[in-house]
Design a protein that fits this description.
heterodimer, A: alpha+beta, five-stranded antiparallel β-sheet, 9 helices, 15 strands, 27% strand, globular, B: alpha+beta, five-stranded mixed β-sheet, 20% strand
Chain lengths: 302, 393
């Protein structure tokens, strides 16, 4: 994991250099994991934006919002932790104390809140706040080999749980996921039976990375799904993927990595998307879902 | 050393189950939000954060990762004076093309006073709020939801009862050699068995074996004990003190279950003493809960029982509120400081999760939590009344 952390971190600092950022403030779980590898307690749903992590170009330093060093990788020294606080003044003081923050000219962010905009205006008065979520996602879209391995591992656990859910119900599948150490869902588990066909879809996050699987029982040929998988290859665009789906709706092709990621292709979305080698995608219809990695000559199902 | 009469006290104050009128609940919340918007001259609230969407529209939260919740959302648009909120479904606010569709659906914002809770990069790039006067949405949401209606209290109580019910079978499998994730999997299975999945789990279930002395645990910025770290997958060992903390969502409302369990044996005398002291703090705090009491009075009541060391975790609180969020105002005993606590005056409908911690370095710690609501003349207990096994009388 330390090698993977180093490679991801290198990519993030290179992005900061390319985008001429003096500092990068990250609020999202997935961005923070990508940049630092830090582990933290998972909670469901959206969180209000806050400075969960600050990277500084000049010092090459990573500063993390954490009250303890558990889950914090060795690259982040204890002195670079700032504890959870309820007090905006305490948070402001913590950011002010970060070398290179107050005199930054360009600060990248992965999202914003009105409160943070106001605080940054006081703390780093000369700084322009630049959303770089799109640049971060572009860097993250092409996966490192170790990332593909982690997605594959999470996917194989999800696949096993799908079989158990179909045979023995959701509680049995949740127990199995517990035995596999996979207690964090990426999406709510689906188990529903309509007209004698049972559809199961399980998505999990294991070691930060998402895996997933969707199946129908009894299985029957899903031509749209097959066409979507075949169309998800390097060089494909939303237009070519849509052409493969024909008139069908209710399908989705989207990036998968540290959770749900761009690119997103649906019957309505994906105008500027061009799929590239090394991307990992979740390809799903109402009946089936698989995870694929794009290879030079097409794709491989994980 | 039993529970000092705490269980009987909670039972005597328990709120009876009540059928929830969801339409009324939604109407009353909308009225509160509108009143707050009028008071602060907000023209429109644009809400993307899932708990805020749940509060304003009734669209319940899902047990999903932030990356899923952020990419495809329901968004609430609350216009000042409107009789009901607008819900936009299947919004993609992380994508530039998704924001173009969102901006079309919301309509012009320039020149208006807009309360907003989050700006995605795509919203900033599109200049969606250019020309608007932007205020933090929590300024209108937080005061609106500070006190709960009767229906909201009933939802919280039901969420807590479901959480407690799922804990019965879960505790039965706690034994030496079991891993945290296996216990968590059992909890999630119990939850799914209860009601066919109408509750959503909101937090990776915490069953954390705690160190007996602070120094052998993770290093912290406060110098106190680290909890909850959510890191790794520890194996529970014979005699471990395990701090349990879980939260689920029912009809948009959070539960909060906290207990301390002992693995494989009964508590020692020293551990029972921790529990007895914890009960004394809890009873002392509850004794102060009534309309007009201040947060400062609650904190002082706790400290009077444990004068040597504040009986709660310094990075958290003695008391937190709970509603559509698992921790919201009123927060008491935090680093907002004593002045903030003094200024917080309890009012009927406020929900208080009281979570003292007794720590005796070398022995370990006892931590648990109970949810109460302020009533017209005191307080009521929310939940079904869960035992303190293996502690208690």
């Amino acid at each position: 994991m330390s090698e993977l952390r180093a490679l991801r971190r290198e990519r993030v600092f290179a992005l900061m250099k390319d985008a001429d950022l003096d500092a990068l403030v990250l609020g999202r779980r997935d961005s923070v994991v990508y940049a630092t590898g830090a582990r933290s307690l998972w909670t469901a749903g959206t969180r209000p934006f806050g400075a969960a992590c600050v990277l500084v170009a000049a010092t090459d330093a990573t500063h993390l919002l954490s009250t303890w060093d558990a889950g914090v990788p060795p690259e982040v020294p204890f002195e670079h932790l700032y504890g959870v606080t309820w007090n905006p003044a305490t948070m402001a003081a913590a950011l002010r104390a970060i070398s290179g923050f107050a005199d930054a000219r360009r600060i990248g962010v992965d999202a914003l809140s009105p409160g943070f905009q106001r605080a940054a205006g006081r703390l780093a008065p000369d700084a322009e706040l630049v959303p770089v979520d799109d640049l971060l996602h572009a860097v993250r879209a092409v996966k490192l080999p170790a990332e593909v391995d982690l997605i594959q591992r999470a996917t194989s656990i999800a696949r096993e749980a799908v079989e158990v859910a179909a045979a023995s119900g959701l509680p049995a599948a949740l127990r199995l996921l517990g035995e596999r150490g996979a207690t964090v869902p990426s999406s709510p588990p689906v188990l529903r039976t309509v007209d004698g066909v049972t559809h199961v879809d399980i998505g999990v996050i294991v070691d930060g990375y998402e895996g997933g699987c969707g199946r129908s029982f009894p299985s029957s040929p899903d031509e749209v799904f097959g066409s979507l998988v075949a169309a998800s290859v390097p060089g494909a665009t939303a237009a070519s993927v849509r052409a493969a789906a024909g008139e069908a709706t209710g399908w989705l092709v989207r990036g998968i990595g540290l959770g749900f990621e761009p690119p997103v292709i649906t019957p309505d979305l994906g105008a500027d998307v061009v799929l590239q080698e090394g991307m990992t995608l979740s390809v799903e219809t109402a009946a089936s879902r698989d995870i694929v990695v794009l290879t030079p000559d097409g794709n491989r199902t994980l | 050393m039993g529970d000092q009469g705490l269980s009987a006290l909670l039972t005597a104050h328990r709120l009876s189950p009540m059928a929830v009128d969801e339409a009324r609940m939604l109407r009353e919340r909308h009225g509160r939000l509108q009143a707050e918007m009028a008071r602060q001259a907000v023209d429109v609230a644009l809400l993307l954060h899932a708990p805020n969407v749940a509060y304003s529209t009734g669209v319940a939260r899902r047990s999903e990762d932030v990356t899923h919740a952020a990419n495809r959302r329901s968004v609430a648009v609350v216009e000042a004076g409107a009789s009901s909120p607008r819900v936009l479904v299947d919004v993609w606010p992380e994508l530039d093309e998704g924001v173009a569709a969102l901006a079309d659906a919301v309509g012009p914002l320039a020149g208006r006073r807009v309360a907003v809770d989050e700006l995605t990069g795509a919203m900033v790039r599109a200049g969606m709020l250019d020309g608007a006067t932007v205020v933090e949405a929590s300024q209108v949401i937080a005061p609106a939801k500070l006190t709960k209606t009767a229906d909201e209290l009933a939802c919280i109580a039901e969420a807590q009862r479901r959480n407690e019910a799922a804990m019965v079978g879960t505790q039965a499998m706690v034994r030496p050699g079991v891993r945290r994730s296996e216990v968590a999997g059992e909890f999630l299975a119990q939850l799914a068995s209860l009601d066919g999945g109408s509750t959503a789990n909101l937090i990776d279930p915490i069953f954390e074996p705690m160190p007996r002395t602070i120094v052998v645990g993770p290093r912290t910025t406060t110098g106190h004990v680290a909890f909850p770290t959510g890191v790794g997958d520890p194996v529970l060992a014979d005699g471990d003190l395990v701090w349990v903390d879980t939260g689920i969502d029912h009809c948009g409302y959070a539960s909060d279950f906290g207990r301390t369990w002992v693995v494989g044996r009964d508590p020692t005398e020293a551990e029972r003493e921790l529990f007895a002291r914890w009960c004394s703090v809890m009873i002392a705090v509850l004794d102060e809960v009534r309309p007009g009491a201040t947060g400062g009075e609650l904190c002082r009541a706790a400290s009077a029982v444990e004068p040597a060391d504040r009986p709660w975790l310094p990075h958290f609180y003695l008391v937190h509120g709970l509603g559509v969020e698992s921790a919201e105002m009123p927060l008491l005993g935090t680093d907002l400081g004593p002045e903030f606590d003094e200024g917080l005056v309890l009012a009927p409908g406020m929900v208080l999760v009281v979570e003292p911690v007794i720590w005796e370095d070398g022995v370990g710690g006892y931590r648990a939590e109970e949810i109460v609501a302020v009533t017209g003349d005191g307080w009521c207990h929310l939940g079904g009344g869960h035992d303190f096994t293996p502690f208690g009388s």
